Amino acid sequence: MICDSPQTLCRLEGSKLKNLGLLDLLELTGFKQSPTDKIVRHQHDRYPVKELLGRGLLETYQAYQSKPVFHKAKHVVAVYGLEGNRACFFGVFRKVDYRSSKDGPLQTGDPWECEWQN
Description:
The chain is an alpha+beta fold. It folds into 2 domains: 1-31, no CATH class; 34-117, no CATH class. Helices cover 22% and strands 24% of the residues. It has 4 helices and 5 strands, in the order E-E-H-E-H-H-E-E-H. The chain has helices at residues 22-28, 49-54, 58-63, 111-117; strands at 10-13, 16-19, 38-42, 75-81, 87-94. The strands form 2 sheets. A 3-stranded mixed sheet has the order 3-4-5, with no helix packed on it. Strands 1-2 form a two-stranded antiparallel sheet. The radius of gyration is 17 Å and the shape is globular. Residues 1-6 have low confidence and may be disordered.
């Protein structure tokens, strides 16, 4: 069901309409949200998302964190910024392990990844 504007999706809960958010839409596909899940919007002036995507580095970029923000997360729901306040869905990632960025070899050897590891 479409609500007030063509960009708002809603569902009927009892006799009230509820706006659907990203996690609601993912739930319709079988995604089971955990309280530790994180949503991240990638947008960085130093590492433009379009360039990261073009170089196949967005997933690698996401794996590096200056602070351990995702270390307790079961899933990371990732989007990347578009113009204004819009975003494009990138994916749902299950966290398998956590380690310091300095532990382990580089995944791609790209110069940007060398920066992220340090």
